[in-house]
Design goal:
Number of strands: 23
Order of helices and strands: EEEEHEEEEEEHEEEEEEEEEEEEE
Oligomer: single chain
Number of helices: 2
Strand order of the largest sheet: 14-16-21-18-19
Shape: globular
Number of domains: 2
Strand content: 35-45%
Largest sheet: 5 strands, antiparallel
Helix content: under 10%
């Protein structure tokens, strides 16, 4: 049994819950992504990036070698120890768990759904590639202060980004006190400048003080929801992309699903007149300097919507290795 001693006790308490998208609208297949997670035999620390429609975990893991799933919800205190999965007391320490229905203590399950942007510990009887479909949820990071946090990251699997580079502009994470699960045991990452983030995995990361740091690419969208919502009285919405890293950053905003939502990019000409051009992809002419923000105004071409509503996806990625997906929804004229 491995215990890694926690550092200072918290000065105050924050209740940290999962940020789950609850949509008042019906979304179609245009907003569905597929996540493929390679599981080893034994315990795996994964990061789920999509919201799964199915809520019954018995159905989700039917005909798979997955037998246990657990997740951590800090409620009243910080994490004082990092425990290897087999050492965790399930009825304590804010852990929620699910075990397969064939287990004699399945009636004690208290984990009843999987949420996007959450870290899970998954026990598999054999090596297995778990393929899961769901809808992306734009994450708003909230770190539990003076504590280890079990979390993952929205990074581009095609670009290597080290832990040191990812946290390069966050004072709360300068110590780079990070643990990863290796052979069902937690091990500290001793070379965070050389170790790359795996976007399908989760890690224990210590946060010194409060923080909302979510990486070098910061996305701000209008409204209270974490998706672009063109209600019948809204024709234009503006995204703000901020370089939250210490380096120059270039990024691209791309419409997926064959432009399922007809959008136009709004710009100004030399006479400051508005120009609307069909939107497929956008990148700024110049790289963003640290702290610089780019505003992108997208207008819906509502007359081209023949259905009651349409929805699709936007992909936002940068040259530093950050990558997000954003749902866009528009009401038709019907």
């Amino acid at each position: 049994m491995t215990f890694i001693k926690h550092l200072p006790k918290p000065h105050f308490v924050i209740i940290w819950l999962a940020c789950t998208l609850i949509l008042p609208i019906a979304l179609q297949a245009n907003t569905t992504l597929e996540q493929n997670i390679s599981l080893n035999q034994g315990w795996n620390a994964i990061f789920l990036k999509v919201q799964v429609d199915e809520t019954d975990l018995n159905k989700i893991f039917e005909n798979t070698p997955v037998k246990k799933v657990i997740t951590y919800y800090p409620r009243h205190s910080s994490v004082q120890f990092i425990q290897d999965p087999d050492s965790i007391e399930w009825n304590k320490d804010s852990w929620l768990r699910w075990v397969s229905s064939e287990s004699p203590d399945a009636f004690l399950n208290n984990l009843f759904r999987l949420n996007a942007n959450r870290a899970y510990l998954v026990y598999s009887k054999e090596a297995f590639v778990w393929t899961i479909q769901g809808k992306p949820v734009l994450e708003i990071k909230k770190w539990h202060p003076e504590s280890f946090n079990l979390t993952g990251f929205h990074t581009n699997p095609e670009i290597n980004i080290s832990f040191a580079d990812y946290f390069g502009n966050s004072e709360a994470h300068l110590d780079l006190n990070i643990y990863q699960l290796v052979n069902s045991k937690w091990q500290r990452i001793t070379a965070p400048y050389k170790e790359f983030i795996n976007s399908n995995k989760s890690y224990w990361v210590f946060c010194k003080g409060g923080s909302s740091y979510g990486g070098g690419l910061k996305i701000k969208i209008p409204g209270i929801n974490n998706f672009l919502e063109y209600q019948v009285h809204i024709d234009e919405l503006t995204l703000e992309i901020t370089n939250n890293s210490p380096d120059e950053m270039s990024f691209s905003l791309t419409s997926l699903n064959n432009n399922a939502v007809p959008l136009s990019l709004k710009t100004k000409n030399e006479s400051f007149e508005s120009i609307y051009e069909p939107f497929e992809q956008y990148s700024p002419k110049n790289s963003l300097q640290p702290g610089q923000t780019e505003k992108i105004c997208l207008a819906v071409r509502r007359k081209e919507i023949s259905d009651d509503q349409v929805n699709g996806l936007l992909k936002i990625s940068d040259n530093l290795g950050n990558q997000y997906y954003l749902i866009v929804w528009a009401k038709g004229l019907k």
